[in-house]
Amino acid sequence: MKTDHHVILRVTAKFLIPIITLYAFYVQFHGDYSPGGGFQAGVIFAVGIILYALIFGVVEALRLVPATFARTLALFGFLLYGSVGVWAMLNGGLFLDYDFVIPEGPDGHWGQHIGIIVIELGVLFAVAGSMLTIFYAFAGRAPEIDDEDW
Amino acid sequence: MLIDVLSLLPESWVRHLPVLVVLGPMLLSPICAAMPKWRIAWALALFGIITSSVFAFALLQDVMAHGRVSYALGGWAPPLGIEFAADMLNAPVLVLVSVIGVLATIFAMPTIVQDINEEKRSLFLSAYLLCFAGLMGVAITGDAFNLFVFLEISSISTYVLVAIGGSRDRRAFTAAYNYLIMGSLGATFYVIGIGFLYAATGTLNMADMASRIPEVADSKTIHAGFAFIVAGLALKAAMFPLHQWLPNAYTYSPSFVTVFLSATATKVAFYALVRLLFSVFSPELEFQQVVFTWVLAPMAAVAAIACSFQAVFQTNIKRMLAYSSVAQVGYMLMGLSLASAAGLSASMFHMINHALMKGALFMAVAGVVMSLGSSQLKDFAGVARKAPWTATALGISALSLVGVPLTAGFLSKVALFQAALMQDWWWAVVVLAISSVLAVLYVGRMLETVFFKTPGPAQLQVKEAPLMLLIPLWVLALGSIYFGLDASFITSLTDGAANVAFSGGQP
User: Fold this and answer.
1) CB atoms within 10 A of CB B340
2) Would A45 be classed as within a structural domain?
3) CB < 8 Å from B in window 54-73 of A
4) Which of B76, B312, B362, B500 has the highest CB neighbour count under 10 A?
5) pTM exceeds 0.90
6) Residues of A in contact with B27 (CB under 8 A)
7) What's the domain range around A117?
8) ipTM, 2 dp
9) Tens digits of residue pLDDT in A131-142
């Protein structure tokens, strides 16, 4: 049997990655009324994937989350954020005025709640996607000069 | 002379104008990045920037008709919320940046085919749109911290744009890295300064800050904040001796990036400096007068002479024009440090003219480089014979750079001289005159090579630049002539800007 030096790392990582991901969503969904939010959650979520890439290799990580998916996620998150602003404008409010996100009376403030949650989701996608894209860009970069060429 | 764009727009759009000038390019940027075909991305970029320039024109007319326009983002009223505010000081800057943006985007079509690898072109255009949106944001925002955010958006995408030149010339990487370090220092200094001001005044809104600073103007906090802000923005605007990032960044980046940056980025940073110095701080403050007389004016004088002198000895034509840009920033700072309405108006006038002529010069150089493959001055020998249209536009803009009568550059230099004489700054007139003579030397050397030297075999292979390049080039060159004959439109704008600045930027 081939010995595996990293067996402890692998087992621990497998145990930790779901918890990290879950924690990311915990931070995400508390972001609208307590410390936390999309940025931190996005970083934590990306860290889970990056840990996976460090332990099991970038190739495996790329099978799990392809580079194009990460990039598209970032773009989608950015657009989601912007479209909430435009949506409020179309409903007759100012840019990003959450009071106009859903039709409700002048006393209703559910729009504020929904608006901030959608915005934070946009931030989550954008940050997680960007972090992964940056990581892939560094990790996937082949050295231009081999060590033997020196 | 303007078409009444404002009345053509739907009523409901008009109140959103301040945010619309930024929104289109910013939201199109991620869509561009996802485009598999770069030509579609290019069309989207052009569309976004054209809409942005239409809105900028409409906003200018709105401001001219009704005065200051304020927009509360998210419905949170200023000074608590973030405010986008347009007045006569920034509306002309928005128009300038967006018009240059449209011309540069048309110019981009033929040049990025040569300069940038195919798989990077969509991403490149996406970064360009972000940079554009960031510059527009710096110009429109009425919030001091928000200005920092937009400054970073535009700067970070600029580093990317410069570094993309690395696939052709590896030196672009070091240039971009150098720019990154210097630019980050500038942004950090700016935000430290804003931190001090926030500590002293308790507000981030510029108009609110302006009304609170006089009470606390004697505190060390305000002085330190002021020093940090001036140093940070001067770095971004390439004030001597903080201009070291500029020559390499302009020389090694793709020609499209050079055109766009030279005509917009330093101009917007200069606007930000004017905004902070005149409508947040006030020229009546004692420490500000000290800075004007003993820091900005001497540095401007050194820049105008030393960098013109350096330009004379450059062998690379792009680098020569880059040094000339630093010298021209010196002219603008000289006008600014007069701390008079006439001086500020003259330096804004020179800023607009410089955007026109430097944009055209870099475009014309790019047009020749496309078929020549070199930007060394000696390789430009006699290219006018093979590319007369490109070379003529180059000649017109170069004459405007020197300040030959009947060109826009002449009028703005005269305006600067007059403003300096009004305060008996004879030495400033002498400095600017010496700098102009040096400009005759380096421009003369360029024109002599281009028009009168005998072309070698390589130069005979030079072809006329493509039409997509000639159109924006000639629009800019003819602009330099038109505003040299009748500058009343620009001077009415810059006089308005100076009035706003000296009334403290209050609504």
Assistant:
1) 18
2) yes
3) 71-72
4) B362
5) yes
6) 79, 82-83, 86
7) 7-140
8) 0.87
9) 999 999 888 776
